[in-house]
Specification:
The chain is of the alpha+beta class. The radius of gyration is 21 Å and the shape is elongated. The mean pLDDT is 77.
């Protein structure tokens, strides 16, 4: 069974998801993958072709026969988030604001799989982890403050780029 957009992708807005999908398809097209579609974008086409159960071999064959799509790409987002602690600059004066205490990190785990519609086989499968660490900024007396300007969306975009690069090198679809 191909992967699909997991509930963990709900951390992103619709605009962010659309941008991510467009980036994936654009990257695939630039690499010459013209016969691959995103599983998530195929709801209407699959129902129109009579495919209600992707695991049924007869229905799955219709994806290739009726729609001319030999490969579907599925994505699954695992753990994605940031770590670090906010500390008050001065507990007595909260209006002074706060800062990251230490060890700031943004990370994501993304699974990218290429699914062959004729056979039902996953022909390429990658789990890509991306970590964006904070940058230590010296604040004096050999102390430093770790700042991180990364975002979860940025970490997922980097994971997609790495995953697509590996998929392109691995597959001759």
């Amino acid at each position: 069974m191909p992967l699909h957009w997991e509930p963990s992708f709900r951390k992103f807005s619709t605009a962010q998801l659309n941008e991510l999908e467009n980036r994936i398809l654009r990257t695939l097209r630039e690499e010459g993958f013209t016969n691959v579609e995103l599983y998530d974008r195929m709801d209407y086409e699959l129902l129109n072709a009579g495919v209600r159960d992707i695991n049924d071999p007869v229905q799955r064959a219709n994806i290739n026969l009726q729609l001319g799509i030999p490969y579907l790409l599925g994505l699954s987002l695992g753990d994605a988030g940031w770590t670090g602690e906010w500390k008050a600059i001065s507990p007595e004066e909260p209006e002074m604001g706060s800062y990251w205490e230490s060890d700031t990190r943004v990370s994501s785990m993304l699974r990218i799989a290429l699914f062959e519609t004729a056979t039902g086989e996953i022909v390429s499968d990658y789990a890509v982890e991306t970590t964006i660490d904070g940058i230590p900024i010296p604040v004096g007396d050999s102390e430093s403050l770790s700042l991180n300007f990364g975002s979860i969306e940025q970490a997922v975009r980097l994971s997609v780029q790495k995953g697509i690069r590996n998929l392109v090198q691995d597959c001759s679809c």
